[in-house]
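The passage that follows is intended for readers who have already worked through the single-chain material. We present the inputs for a multi-component assembly, then the predicted structure in tokenized form, and finally a short commentary. You are encouraged to pause after the input and sketch how you expect the pieces to fit together before reading on.
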Amino acid sequence: MAGCCHSKMACVIEAGVANFDGHRNGMSIKKNDSRERNATQWAARLMESVRAVLAEHPEADSDNVRHTLILLEYPPLERLRKSLTRGRALTQRK
Amino acid sequence: MAAPSLNESELRFLRALLRRKVRFMVVGLSAAALQGAPVVTQDVDLWFEDLGDARIREALREVDAAYVPPSILNPPMFIGGGVELFDIVLTMHGLGAFPEEWRNCVEVSLGRHQLKVLRADRILASKRAANRAKDRLVIPVLEDSLAASQVAARRGTKKAAIPRRRKPSR
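Having made your guess, compare it with the prediction:
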């Protein structure tokens, strides 16, 4: 399944699963190691930023902070696209 | 399957307004989303300085849409041309006059044009002033998001690419 990671856990879990498959299928594990390393580094940077925000705003919800920091890495129109897509998906489900 | 969001008609309409230098800005939760707030919304609220501006009609004609003025039965609306997504905002609670807010807008690039977007702290101010049940639900999210954005801007958050998952090789 092709997709992309948008959260620490998703990245780490997907990288872990990919590595497991790599071992089982005899694929080169080098690529997966690199992906896992990138994902872990990215997640560490993200969580460091979350902690910095929470240090100044201890009342803030960590999920709101984390999701905002992730969205800030996308271009503005992409942020709106995600927001509208979810809103429309909810409407369609009703 | 992901539902479509801003489609070509909607982008064409925004560009038609911007090309004609119509003074308007994106407000509400769409404006918050453009600035990184993790919120959901079903429409894009547009605040026009002057709804009587003839250039708005010209832009609507360009995309085969029309303006329906407000009546007892309906608020002002844009109909046709695939621009029904846009809601017209007549008044913004808790804010200054249009020219005052216009000066403090943030800008989002839309091709060659710059789309004016109400600043996140002003969106929060309007939600606090409106104080409807749906506003009260979203205020904590907007507060946290604003705090995160401000700290991130101060720290000069590195724009690290989000790791993407590649297609597995076969």
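Commentary: The first helix of chain A runs from residue 8 to 25. Chain A touches chain B through 50 residues (CB under 8 Å). How closely did your sketch match?
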